[in-house]
Amino acid sequence: MTSLEQTDTADLTARRFERMRPFGGEPGPTVDSTGLPPGPHWPVWMQSVGLLRFRHRFVPHMWRRYGDVFTVRIVPGGRPLVLFTRPEHAKEIFAGDPEVFHAGKGNAILGPIMGEHSLLLQDGAEHKRARALLMPAFNGQALRGYRGLVEEVARDEVARWRPGEEFRSLDRMNALTLEVILRVVFGVTDESRLARLRPCVNRTVNVSPAVLLGWGYPQLQRFGPWKRTVENAYRLDELIYAEIRERRRAADLTDRSDVLSRLILAGTDGDRLTDEELRDQLVTLLLAGHETTATALAWALYELGSDPSQLARAREAARQGDDAYLEAVLKESMRLHPVIPMVVRTLMKPVTVAGWHLPAGATVGPSILVNHARADSHPDPERFDPERFVGQSPPVNSWIPFGGGVRRCIGAGFSLMEGAAVLREVLTTYAVTATGPDVPKVRNITSVPRRGARVRVG
Ligand code: HEM
């Protein structure tokens, strides 16, 4: 890379930080809170801590106490978050007009890392355009193209395990899904570049909310974790932009099947993704697609490892190449242990949801956690039972781990394909045994197994 290009890249990074500061963009409309659904009268900080740190107990408690629709008040300023828990509520929210039900606002804290073009941060016409450009890279035909490489990465990972070894399956699955993102999504195969990318990507994924919250204060960026995050962001951008620029010139661009190459070619002349847009979408895919899939897989191994008869059934399916059953295992793991506990939309106008008249500025969302735990949708909801998804599906909108509507997870099919390939590789090679109980713990936006879903393979 020439020094001119390096300066270029650093400029792009600096300009992004400038634009995305302070996080959150314009303030939302002021909220008229009269007539909202019931909720606790606790201090706002206490409700915020309940929701952010203890959601697995707090949200079901609110549901039992206040019923199917309730309001929680959170920082900043005690703004209302109205949570809905029935499938028909989820349907109404997902079908809401995207010009009124904005999703990007809720993700604004991720702005400095993901960038303003990120699919997760956009709303309205911009979101529609970006989504149309990205979707073809995740359709059925594209997924079939990624499969071979995913299988190869899974095989390499499992080949490093030793019979009798015990480990945190979450850590192993994180390493595996990171490799999948780098090779299948970024399309990087050069070992020396992979070696430089891995630590930068890991540091990006591990950035804490405290660091993100500090982004509004530029002076902090001279110190400790903020300084390291900024330095890392410059390094990561430099590597990603180098990759993008080289790929644009690659002689075999049209023959390549990785996501980046497809995104470079997406659209028509005059409407293609720019370097900055490509960078933002790549970082988004990295952050949205890596730990989520790893967590679903770790829970799946933990559940199979806790029940010898379920394990035997799944190993048989793996030997037969029955991917539909392996997908059912993953779907049931995501039902019982939702990776993301809720999805939210901010209302740009007053609307009525489930008969409640809600003001502009309120945030609304289906609680995935409660929807998945309802006995009227999922009989015996505490039981792990992949058969719920074999030859049948739970009632519409009662299983929503990937959200819904125009914002439904773009990587849903990808993660199921990847998950089934990984389970097939693991289960044809090893039996797994969970080595102790585990429970969910909050990690930033996702919920992960507290003890890392420890298993022994043999
Ligand atoms: C088990 C794995 C995964 C889970 C549980 C998950 C969950 C979700 C959820 C709940 C949303 C928000 C949907 C909404 O607001 O209605 C979402 C959005 C998104 N996910 Fe995933 N995801 C997973 C894997 C992936 C993968 C593998 C990728 C990409 C490689 C990905 C990329 C995205 C993107 C780009 C969005 C934003 C979509 C938009 O706003 O239009 N996710 N995901």
What keyword list fits this structure?
three-stranded antiparallel β-sheet; globular; about 450 residues; about 10% strand; binds protoporphyrin IX containing FE; alpha+beta; 18 helices; five-stranded mixed β-sheet; about 50% helix
Helix and strand topology:
Layout: H1 3-19, H2 44-53, H3 55-66, E1 69-74, E2 79-84, H4 87-94, E3 101-102, H5 111-114, H6 124-134, H7 140-159, E4 166-168, H8 169-185, H9 191-205, H10 209-213, H11 224-249, H12 259-265, H13 275-289, H14 291-305, H15 308-320, H16 323-336, E5 345-347, E6 351-353, E7 356-358, E8 363-366, H17 368-373, H18 412-429, E9 432-434, E10 440-443, E11 446-449, E12 454-457
Bound molecules: protoporphyrin IX containing FE.
Order of helices and strands: HHHEEHEHHHEHHHHHHHHHEEEEHHEEEE
What's the tally of helices? 18
Q: Provide the spatial order of strands within the biggest beta sheet.
A: 1-2-8-5-3
DSSP E strands, number: 12
Shape: globular
Describe the protein.
It is globular, with a radius of gyration of 22 Å. The chain is an alpha+beta fold and 458 residues long. It has helices at 3-19, 44-53, 55-66, 87-94, 111-114, 124-134, 140-159, 169-185, 191-205, 209-213, 224-249, 259-265, 275-289, 291-305, 308-320, 323-336, 368-373, 412-429; strands at 69-74, 79-84, 101-102, 166-168, 345-347, 351-353, 356-358, 363-366, 432-434, 440-443, 446-449, 454-457. Mean pLDDT is 92; it is low at 22-27. A five-stranded mixed β-sheet has the order 1-2-8-5-3. A three-stranded antiparallel β-sheet has the order 4-12-9. Helix content is 51%, strand content 10%. It has 18 helices and twelve strands. Protoporphyrin IX containing FE is lined by residues 103, 119-120, 131, 185, 284-285, 288-289, 292-293, 296, 334, 339-340, 343, 401-404, 407-411, 414-415.
